[in-house]
Amino acid sequence: MSDFQIECISLSKHYTSKNQTIIALDDINMGLNKNDTVLIKGRSGAGKTTFLNMMCGLIKPTNGKVYIDNDLINELPDESLSKLLAFKIGIIFQSFNLLPTYTVFENIEIALVPKMSDKSDIKEKIMLLLDQFNLKNKAQLLPSELSVGQQQKVAIIRTLAKEPSIIFADEPTGSVDDQTAKEILECLTNLKKKRQVTLVIATHGNIPDNFADKIFILDNGRLTS
Amino acid sequence: MNYLIKELRSHSGRTIASITGYGIAALFLLLVLSLTVTNEESSTQILKGTGTHFIAYVPSNISCCVSCDPESSNGSLFAEGVNTIMLTDDVVDSIKKIRGVRDASPYLLYKLYEPEFNGDVSLGGIEINSIATQNNVCAATNLISGKYISEKPDEVVAEESFASAHNLSVGDTLKIYGGKLLLAGIVNSGIKPGKADLYATIDNVRRILKDKLKCVSPGFDMNIVLVEVTDARMQNQVLLQLKEKMKYLSVSSYNCYQPANDVMKITEKTSLLLSVLIFFFLIIFSAKTQLTSLVERYREIGILKSLGWSNSKLTWQILDLSAIQALAGASIGVLIGFLIILLINGHNIRLFGLLEFRFQYTTALILLVLSLTGGLIAGIFPIIKLHRTKAGEMINNFM
Q1: Are residues B28 and B86 in the same domain?
Q2: Which one of A53, A95, A115 has the shortest CB-CB distance to B308?
Q3: In B, which residues are within 8 Å of A78 by CB distance?
Q4: What's the domain count of chain A?
């Protein structure tokens, strides 16, 4: 039994392209405690997204293990992993990953479907969050009708609505203006104040170091603290 | 269910394309099958009546059931160029009982040397209403002049070739068989195994031959059995049973049943093959539609997986979407097909002037079931892919 909430052991990811093996991540070891706020910094293409995706079970590592609350997630059956993703893990994607044909409301709703069954509860929760982010009047719009910053906010709301105990955020402020970036960071800070949540943020450097408890640098596939 | 409807509505272009695809496929298949069924039925109907007859007799050199010598000095009972013996009525009854025999009828065929005609003149006594007689000897439809055989004594009809050879006309009186016979009509019966020069009812012929046959008595009044089977495909089976039961019988047919049988088998097998090909076409079409649909949805499915949607939930969603599109498309196709067939038949239009489009409810049902099956089978490939691929790969590979 480990004391860490998230633990990566000898984690590596290799790709084969045109008969060449590309090492995206190499022998990464990391342990994060509950309620930690962690920044994983690195330049573009350093492997931050791959690392985040492996930690939350979206892709399989070539070697190594990832434990979340002592569950070896890279060997979890699909149904157990789905439960983990539905209840415990929230992911904020770099490219938002909003469904283009679904409205703002529906894009948030789909994240709650595996977890909640009461439609009125779902609606109440979504409208409350949209209100907090000043997007209440955008509920029935399609993502394409929103600004990039608003789309990022919707992606964040979709994650927050699930009330996960771990949030993986991939460049949450990477494609927004300074003001929106500030709002997003404030929102994450407020979240930390309200309840216990472990926050793992990948960034190329536009988030101040004092935002985090721990900072790791990812360079050439290797992680240093 | 909300998400299924949402999914169908939000990708309305793809949904319409998919449903239209199923609709066109179902419509096309319905029309093809409605013609195939009619084609098979029509050709089978024609072919099953082809070569369904034969004659059975006992050559005179075989001793089995001869009760007397039927030959006179210048005349004899004969069949297919050989002299025959008399047969009893129970042979007809026995043949009638054989499975596949539609009708069996007695036939009395005699030939007598007539100096006035400078050769043998054959006289056949028939039961005119028997289908076996009509197909083996002659029928009222073969009449080309005068009137057909009647019960009137001393009235005969002649084959056209015989009448032409001897310059005979309807109404002529023939001094023949030791008496006078009136030529009531002329027939052209075509190529038949029991063909004669002259025909009369069997009772009249019995009367005419009374003095020539030494043993005319009830039960000894024919030398040939004319047989009609139910279906050309049964002919071989009936002949085998006949040979097994009455080894002494010789049979003669023109073997038309064999090519007819072969053609019917080809028609049946072609229909079966066509149906199988159609099924595979439907499956391949459905698989293509579903795979295209999944490839387009691949990233979306990856996102849903990353949000905690389980594989089983997504599997059901794929199957349900596939089934809804397949059923909706097939239903529309079948409905349009039904209306087209109704319109065509309403205007009495026949393909090539012969073939009728016939709507069959079973075909419609089969098409719906096949479309559904095709849709579900087609959904298997995307589902396998769904289960094998991690959410991250689904999202990243299709970004």
Answers
A1: no
A2: A115
A3: 310-311, 387
A4: 1
Q: pLDDT tens, A188-203?
A: 888 888 888 899 999 8
CATH number at A148 reads 3.40.50.300
Q: What value of ipTM does the predicted structure carry?
A: 0.91
Listed in sequence order, the DSSP H helices in A87-219 are 104-112, 119-132, 148-161, 178-194
Strand B101-114 relative to strand B224-229: parallel, antiparallel, unpaired?
antiparallel
Contact residues, chain A, for B308 at CB < 8 Å: 82-87, 111, 114-115, 162
Selected for mutation to probe chain A from B9, B14, B306, B385 (highest A CB count within 10 Å) is B306
Sign of CA dihedral B312, B315, B321, B324: negative
pTM of the prediction?
Answer: 0.65
Cross-chain CB nearest to A58 (options B300, B392, B399): B392
Determine, yes or no, domain membership for A178.
yes
State whether B117 and B154 are in the same domain: yes
User: Which value, to the nearest 10 degrees, does the dihedral of the CA atoms of residues B290, B292, B298, B299 take?
Assistant: -140
Residue B146 tokens read as 């005068």
Tell me how many domains chain B contains: 2
- Asked if B53 is an interface residue toward chain A (Cβ–Cβ < 8 A), one would say no
Q: Do B227 and B161 fall into the same domain?
A: yes
Measure CB to CB from residue B307 to each of A53, A85, A101 and give the nearest one. A85
Boundary of a domain, candidates B209, B236, B255: B255
With respect to residue A219, please indicate whether it lies within any of the assigned structural domains: yes
Does A1 map to a domain? no
d(CA A199, CA A213): 10
- What are the pLDDT digits (tens) for A49-90? 889 999 999 888 999 999 998 889 988 888 899 999 999 999
Chain segment A171-185, per-residue pLDDT in tens: 888 777 888 888 888
Chain B residue with CA closest to A60: the answer is: B390
List the domain range (segments joined by +) for residue B387: 2-47+261-397
CB-CB: which of B3, B311, B391 is closest to A58?
B391
CA distance B345 to chain A (A): 45
Reported as a pLDDT band with limits 50, 70 and 90, residue B49 is low
Same domain (yes/no): B136, B281: no
Question: Within its chain, how far is the Cα of B20 from the centroid?
Answer: 37
Q: Can you give the residue range of the structural domain that contains A75?
A: 6-224
Closest chain A C-alpha to B13 CA, distance in angstroms:
12
- Tell me the one-letter amino acid at B31: L
